[in-house]
Amino acid sequence: MLGGILRGRRTILRVPTEADLDGMARWAADMRVRAALTHAYWDEPAARATWKERLAKQSEAKDSVLWAIEADGALAGSCRVDYSMDPGAFGDGGIGITHFTIDPERWRQGLGWDAALTLHRWIFDIVHARSAATTLAAHNAAALRISERLGYQTYAHGHAVYYGDGRYVDELQQRMELATWDERWGVAEREYPVPLGEELEK
Protein backbone atom coordinates (compact mmCIF):
# COMPACT_ATOMS: atom_id res chain seq x y z
CA MET A 1 0.00 0.00 0.00
CA LEU A 2 0.92 3.64 -0.33
CA GLY A 3 0.45 5.69 2.81
CA GLY A 4 -1.94 8.57 3.18
CA ILE A 5 -1.42 12.00 4.75
CA LEU A 6 0.11 12.22 8.24
CA ARG A 7 1.04 15.69 9.47
CA GLY A 8 3.85 16.40 11.89
CA ARG A 9 5.04 19.77 13.13
CA ARG A 10 7.68 20.12 10.40
CA THR A 11 7.11 17.17 8.10
CA ILE A 12 4.26 15.55 6.19
CA LEU A 13 4.13 11.84 5.44
CA ARG A 14 2.25 11.55 2.16
CA VAL A 15 1.53 9.30 -0.80
CA PRO A 16 4.75 8.68 -2.77
CA THR A 17 4.61 9.37 -6.48
CA GLU A 18 6.75 8.57 -9.50
CA ALA A 19 8.22 12.07 -9.25
CA ASP A 20 9.77 11.05 -5.90
CA LEU A 21 11.74 8.15 -7.37
CA ASP A 22 14.71 10.22 -8.51
CA GLY A 23 15.27 11.40 -4.96
CA MET A 24 14.90 7.90 -3.52
CA ALA A 25 17.34 6.54 -6.10
CA ARG A 26 19.86 9.27 -5.30
CA TRP A 27 19.78 8.53 -1.57
CA ALA A 28 20.12 4.79 -2.12
CA ALA A 29 23.36 5.40 -4.02
CA ASP A 30 24.74 7.97 -1.56
CA MET A 31 27.53 6.45 0.53
CA ARG A 32 26.59 8.62 3.51
CA VAL A 33 23.18 6.95 3.52
CA ARG A 34 24.43 3.46 2.72
CA ALA A 35 26.95 3.53 5.55
CA ALA A 36 24.15 4.10 8.07
CA LEU A 37 21.54 1.63 6.81
CA THR A 38 20.88 -2.07 7.19
CA HIS A 39 20.14 -2.23 3.43
CA ALA A 40 16.53 -3.30 3.24
CA TYR A 41 14.65 -3.56 -0.06
CA TRP A 42 14.02 0.18 -0.51
CA ASP A 43 17.62 1.06 0.32
CA GLU A 44 19.22 -0.79 -2.59
CA PRO A 45 20.45 1.19 -5.63
CA ALA A 46 18.81 0.32 -8.93
CA ALA A 47 17.97 1.65 -12.39
CA ARG A 48 15.00 4.01 -12.63
CA ALA A 49 12.90 1.35 -14.37
CA THR A 50 13.42 -0.88 -11.33
CA TRP A 51 12.36 1.92 -9.02
CA LYS A 52 9.14 2.28 -11.02
CA GLU A 53 8.56 -1.46 -10.65
CA ARG A 54 9.16 -1.20 -6.91
CA LEU A 55 6.59 1.59 -6.59
CA ALA A 56 4.03 -0.33 -8.65
CA LYS A 57 4.59 -3.46 -6.58
CA GLN A 58 4.36 -1.48 -3.36
CA SER A 59 1.03 0.04 -4.39
CA GLU A 60 -0.40 -3.49 -4.55
CA ALA A 61 1.20 -4.81 -1.35
CA LYS A 62 -1.22 -5.80 1.39
CA ASP A 63 1.30 -6.24 4.19
CA SER A 64 3.31 -3.02 4.04
CA VAL A 65 2.91 0.75 3.69
CA LEU A 66 5.27 3.27 2.07
CA TRP A 67 5.28 7.05 2.59
CA ALA A 68 7.23 9.92 1.09
CA ILE A 69 8.41 12.43 3.71
CA GLU A 70 7.96 16.06 2.73
CA ALA A 71 9.34 19.18 4.42
CA ASP A 72 9.08 22.81 3.31
CA GLY A 73 7.19 21.71 0.20
CA ALA A 74 9.94 19.38 -1.03
CA LEU A 75 10.72 15.67 -0.80
CA ALA A 76 12.92 15.08 2.25
CA GLY A 77 12.83 11.32 2.83
CA SER A 78 10.79 8.13 2.78
CA CYS A 79 9.75 5.39 5.17
CA ARG A 80 8.16 1.95 4.98
CA VAL A 81 6.58 -0.39 7.51
CA ASP A 82 5.56 -4.04 7.42
CA TYR A 83 2.90 -5.52 9.63
CA SER A 84 2.28 -9.08 10.65
CA MET A 85 0.17 -11.19 12.98
CA ASP A 86 2.99 -13.74 13.09
CA PRO A 87 4.50 -13.85 16.62
CA GLY A 88 7.82 -14.85 15.08
CA ALA A 89 8.04 -11.67 13.00
CA PHE A 90 7.28 -8.36 14.76
CA GLY A 91 5.18 -9.88 17.50
CA ASP A 92 1.46 -10.54 17.56
CA GLY A 93 -0.18 -7.46 16.08
CA GLY A 94 3.14 -5.65 15.69
CA ILE A 95 4.56 -3.24 13.12
CA GLY A 96 8.09 -3.43 11.74
CA ILE A 97 9.86 -0.31 10.46
CA THR A 98 11.86 -1.68 7.56
CA HIS A 99 12.95 1.54 5.85
CA PHE A 100 13.46 5.10 7.09
CA THR A 101 15.65 7.55 5.17
CA ILE A 102 16.14 11.31 5.30
CA ASP A 103 17.81 13.17 2.44
CA PRO A 104 21.45 13.54 3.56
CA GLU A 105 21.35 17.18 2.48
CA ARG A 106 18.68 17.68 5.16
CA TRP A 107 20.43 15.87 8.02
CA ARG A 108 20.77 17.58 11.40
CA GLN A 109 17.65 19.67 10.87
CA GLY A 110 15.36 17.67 13.15
CA LEU A 111 13.33 16.25 10.26
CA GLY A 112 14.08 12.63 11.14
CA TRP A 113 12.76 13.06 14.67
CA ASP A 114 9.61 14.87 13.55
CA ALA A 115 8.84 12.28 10.85
CA ALA A 116 9.55 9.38 13.23
CA LEU A 117 7.24 10.78 15.90
CA THR A 118 4.53 11.31 13.29
CA LEU A 119 4.95 7.74 12.02
CA HIS A 120 4.60 6.36 15.55
CA ARG A 121 1.33 8.23 16.05
CA TRP A 122 0.07 6.24 13.06
CA ILE A 123 1.48 2.98 14.45
CA PHE A 124 0.05 3.30 17.95
CA ASP A 125 -2.92 5.68 17.72
CA ILE A 126 -4.35 4.97 14.27
CA VAL A 127 -3.44 1.32 13.68
CA HIS A 128 -3.31 0.68 17.44
CA ALA A 129 -0.47 -1.82 17.02
CA ARG A 130 0.65 -3.65 20.14
CA SER A 131 4.31 -3.05 19.40
CA ALA A 132 6.79 -1.61 16.93
CA ALA A 133 10.15 -3.09 15.98
CA THR A 134 13.16 -2.04 13.95
CA THR A 135 16.70 -3.14 13.21
CA LEU A 136 19.53 -0.58 13.30
CA ALA A 137 23.22 -0.62 12.57
CA ALA A 138 24.99 -0.01 15.88
CA HIS A 139 27.02 2.89 14.47
CA ASN A 140 23.94 4.77 13.21
CA ALA A 141 24.07 7.33 16.02
CA ALA A 142 21.27 9.55 14.70
CA ALA A 143 18.80 6.67 14.40
CA LEU A 144 19.75 5.36 17.84
CA ARG A 145 19.14 8.77 19.41
CA ILE A 146 15.67 8.85 17.85
CA SER A 147 14.80 5.29 18.88
CA GLU A 148 16.00 5.86 22.44
CA ARG A 149 14.01 9.08 22.73
CA LEU A 150 10.90 7.33 21.44
CA GLY A 151 11.26 4.53 24.00
CA TYR A 152 12.72 1.57 22.08
CA GLN A 153 14.73 -1.08 23.89
CA THR A 154 17.33 -3.40 22.38
CA TYR A 155 16.39 -7.07 22.72
CA ALA A 156 19.03 -8.65 20.46
CA HIS A 157 22.58 -7.71 19.50
CA GLY A 158 24.27 -9.20 16.44
CA HIS A 159 28.03 -8.83 16.11
CA ALA A 160 29.83 -7.81 12.89
CA VAL A 161 26.66 -8.10 10.82
CA TYR A 162 27.10 -5.11 8.48
CA TYR A 163 30.04 -3.51 6.73
CA GLY A 164 30.03 0.27 6.99
CA ASP A 165 32.47 3.15 7.39
CA GLY A 166 35.33 0.84 6.42
CA ARG A 167 34.64 -1.75 9.11
CA TYR A 168 32.19 -4.41 10.18
CA VAL A 169 29.55 -3.11 12.56
CA ASP A 170 26.99 -4.62 14.89
CA GLU A 171 23.23 -4.90 14.47
CA LEU A 172 20.72 -3.93 17.14
CA GLN A 173 17.18 -5.34 17.07
CA GLN A 174 14.84 -3.04 18.96
CA ARG A 175 11.26 -3.12 20.12
CA MET A 176 8.79 -0.66 21.64
CA GLU A 177 5.52 -1.60 23.33
CA LEU A 178 2.19 0.21 23.11
CA ALA A 179 2.32 0.74 26.88
CA THR A 180 5.61 2.61 26.49
CA TRP A 181 4.11 4.88 23.85
CA ASP A 182 1.09 5.60 26.01
CA GLU A 183 3.24 6.36 29.05
CA ARG A 184 5.82 8.50 27.27
CA TRP A 185 3.84 10.17 24.48
CA GLY A 186 0.16 9.43 25.08
CA VAL A 187 -0.62 12.83 26.58
CA ALA A 188 1.38 15.24 24.40
CA GLU A 189 1.38 13.43 21.06
CA ARG A 190 -1.96 11.63 20.84
CA GLU A 191 -3.39 11.58 17.30
CA TYR A 192 -6.90 11.23 18.80
CA PRO A 193 -8.23 11.85 22.33
CA VAL A 194 -8.06 8.06 22.88
CA PRO A 195 -6.46 5.38 20.68
CA LEU A 196 -8.83 4.58 17.83
CA GLY A 197 -8.81 0.88 18.67
CA GLU A 198 -9.91 1.53 22.25
CA GLU A 199 -12.68 3.82 21.06
CA LEU A 200 -14.05 1.12 18.76
CA GLU A 201 -13.94 -1.46 21.55
CA LYS A 202 -16.28 0.58 23.78
What would you note in describing this structure?
- With 202 residues, this protein is of the alpha+beta class.
- The chain has one domain: 3-Layer(aba) Sandwich (Aminopeptidase), CATH 3.40.630.
- Helix content is 33%, strand content 31%.
- The protein has 7 helices and 8 strands.
- It has an 8-stranded mixed β-sheet, sandwiched between helices.
Q: What structural keywords apply?
A:
alpha+beta; Aminopeptidase; 8-stranded mixed beta sheet; 8 strands
For the biggest sheet, the summary is: 8 strands, mixed
Overall pLDDT: 88
Walk across the major sheet and give the strand order.
1-2-3-4-5-6-8-7
Annotation, overall tally of beta strands: 8
Range of helix content: 25-40%
Order of helices and strands: EEHHHEEEHEHEEHH
